Amino acid sequence: MDMLRKIAVPIAAVLIFLCLWEALVWVNQWPNYKMASPSDLPPAFWKFRHLFLEMGWQTLWRTVLGLGIAVLVGTGIGVLMGFSRIARDALYPLLVGFNAIPKATLVPVIALLFVGQHDFNTVLMAFLISFFPIAVSVGIGLSTLEPEYRDILRSLGASRMTIFWKIALPKTLPEFFGALKVSVTLAFIGTNLVEIVSPHGRGLGALFKSGETNGDYPLMFAVLIALAALGILLYYAVLVLERIFAGWAERPSG
Amino acid sequence: MDNLIDIKGVTHAYRTKSGPLPVLDDLNISVPEGEFAAVVGPSGCGKSTLTRLIAGLMKPDRGEVWLHGERVTGPRKTVGMAFQNPVLLEWRTILQNVILPLEIVAPGMPRRDREARALHLLEMVGLKGFEHKRPSELSGGMRQRASLCRAIVHKPDVLIMDEPFGALDAFTREDLWQTMRDLRAAEPFTCVLITHDLRESVFLGDQVFVLSGRPARTQAVLDVTLSADRTLDILFEPAAQDMLHYLRDQIRIAQGRDGETH
């Protein structure tokens, strides 16, 4: 019963949303170059099914790779900031400043730096846009570790490395996954940004762009739906990882 | 008898923005092997600093700390610590939490032996059946029991406790006192207990050290002349009551309120 509700309620909500969308277009008698209706989408998906699979895969692997690099680099920076005051003082303004730059402005910079390296540029952008929350949350998680947690191992002569692996790192996992949920969405946005803007790009972003160029509006909307679906998939993948690695942080309910 | 812990003329100050803040001033404490030393004193008099000095987590500005005839220059594996906050690791089960020190101190010890040792202690403190629970599933008193097991699982010479029962309700606290007494009977260790609770110091201690207000020095030492197998009732007997009155007066002096009406 509980399981049924968990699955049935979200599905029902999506169906209701689609019905309202269909009704909106129908009531206003909008042509599909103004707004496509849900019923226009299945034919669009079917017509371009091979492209959707190929482009979706492109977008997916670049996002995941960019996010993976963001996890490594972000955690590295976070560890540095968590353990060294000097590193924290030095890196914070740089990071905040860098994060404040709208990433769209970096697209031409990157495109000029690495001309024609479409895969590389896309992954780079996914990484650049998504490492910040991870770095900050790991840094804060480590620097706010209560000294007593450190002392129970330090008083036994444990090395800093041991304390890091056994206590500091696992203890920051809930914060890390909180940040990862933000980062996964950001990385996805970064990937699509480059895909849409780059001439002769690949990925769902490029498919969207080609829909626009060819005036195929149902295709554009179909891409938007595909993006949403892929975004949900990525987000839930992070949730599953969180459940596995930081499930202990969830309080037993009731 | 040999002293296991010798604190000789320890003076320590913290560096703060408004200059050095002296916390310990020529402090002397000696604890013979196997004895239980309770340390009481007004709030903020540097008692926690004392625990960190004995554990080798800090070095005193002046003076020396000796354990087992060796000068303490850094952390050592023969120390166990318990704090007011049980600091159990939420991602580990109770059993895994208790085993933690063995992973550092005896990395070669077979897993089965580690678990057997931990289970034995958990059973002694009344946590049999809870070994596979997470800390968040246990009550405050139970968590503190697990924390005690972790503090002594590697058979330390010295157990240092910094107000371990301070956050518990009065009845749970009394239960823990008895658990502590039973653990001591079963496991030989020398103990330093920092506490605010005079009844606790008399029930558990062989000696009670009263520290003066900051900077702390040893203001008075009380030998607790009660039998080793104490029950809670003993606290209501005249001998214990006299000691409690004496300690109460000493604390009042330490707080610098000797002249106040009371």
TrEMBL record, chain A:
<dbReference type="InterPro" id="IPR000515">
    <property type="entry name" value="MetI-like"/>
</dbReference>
<dbReference type="GO" id="GO:0005886">
    <property type="term" value="C:plasma membrane"/>
</dbReference>
<keyword id="KW-0472">Membrane</keyword>
<feature type="transmembrane region" description="Helical">
    <location>
        <begin position="217"/>
        <end position="241"/>
    </location>
</feature>
<keyword id="KW-1003">Cell membrane</keyword>
<protein>
    <submittedName>
        <fullName>NitT/TauT family transport system permease protein</fullName>
    </submittedName>
</protein>
<feature type="transmembrane region" description="Helical">
    <location>
        <begin position="122"/>
        <end position="145"/>
    </location>
</feature>
<dbReference type="Pfam" id="PF00528">
    <property type="entry name" value="BPD_transp_1"/>
</dbReference>
<feature type="transmembrane region" description="Helical">
    <location>
        <begin position="176"/>
        <end position="197"/>
    </location>
</feature>
<keyword id="KW-0812">Transmembrane</keyword>
<feature type="transmembrane region" description="Helical">
    <location>
        <begin position="7"/>
        <end position="27"/>
    </location>
</feature>
<dbReference type="GO" id="GO:0055085">
    <property type="term" value="P:transmembrane transport"/>
</dbReference>
<feature type="transmembrane region" description="Helical">
    <location>
        <begin position="90"/>
        <end position="116"/>
    </location>
</feature>
<keyword id="KW-1133">Transmembrane helix</keyword>
<dbReference type="InterPro" id="IPR035906">
    <property type="entry name" value="MetI-like_sf"/>
</dbReference>
<keyword id="KW-0813">Transport</keyword>
<feature type="transmembrane region" description="Helical">
    <location>
        <begin position="60"/>
        <end position="83"/>
    </location>
</feature>
<feature type="domain" description="ABC transmembrane type-1">
    <location>
        <begin position="56"/>
        <end position="242"/>
    </location>
</feature>
<comment type="similarity">
    <text>Belongs to the binding-protein-dependent transport system permease family.</text>
</comment>
From TrEMBL, chain B:
<dbReference type="InterPro" id="IPR003439">
    <property type="entry name" value="ABC_transporter-like_ATP-bd"/>
</dbReference>
<protein>
    <submittedName>
        <fullName>NitT/TauT family transport system ATP-binding protein</fullName>
    </submittedName>
</protein>
<dbReference type="InterPro" id="IPR027417">
    <property type="entry name" value="P-loop_NTPase"/>
</dbReference>
<dbReference type="GO" id="GO:0016887">
    <property type="term" value="F:ATP hydrolysis activity"/>
</dbReference>
<keyword id="KW-0547">Nucleotide-binding</keyword>
<dbReference type="GO" id="GO:0005524">
    <property type="term" value="F:ATP binding"/>
</dbReference>
<keyword id="KW-0813">Transport</keyword>
<comment type="similarity">
    <text>Belongs to the ABC transporter superfamily.</text>
</comment>
<dbReference type="InterPro" id="IPR017871">
    <property type="entry name" value="ABC_transporter-like_CS"/>
</dbReference>
<dbReference type="Pfam" id="PF00005">
    <property type="entry name" value="ABC_tran"/>
</dbReference>
<dbReference type="InterPro" id="IPR050166">
    <property type="entry name" value="ABC_transporter_ATP-bind"/>
</dbReference>
<dbReference type="InterPro" id="IPR003593">
    <property type="entry name" value="AAA+_ATPase"/>
</dbReference>
<feature type="domain" description="ABC transporter">
    <location>
        <begin position="5"/>
        <end position="238"/>
    </location>
</feature>
<keyword id="KW-0067">ATP-binding</keyword>
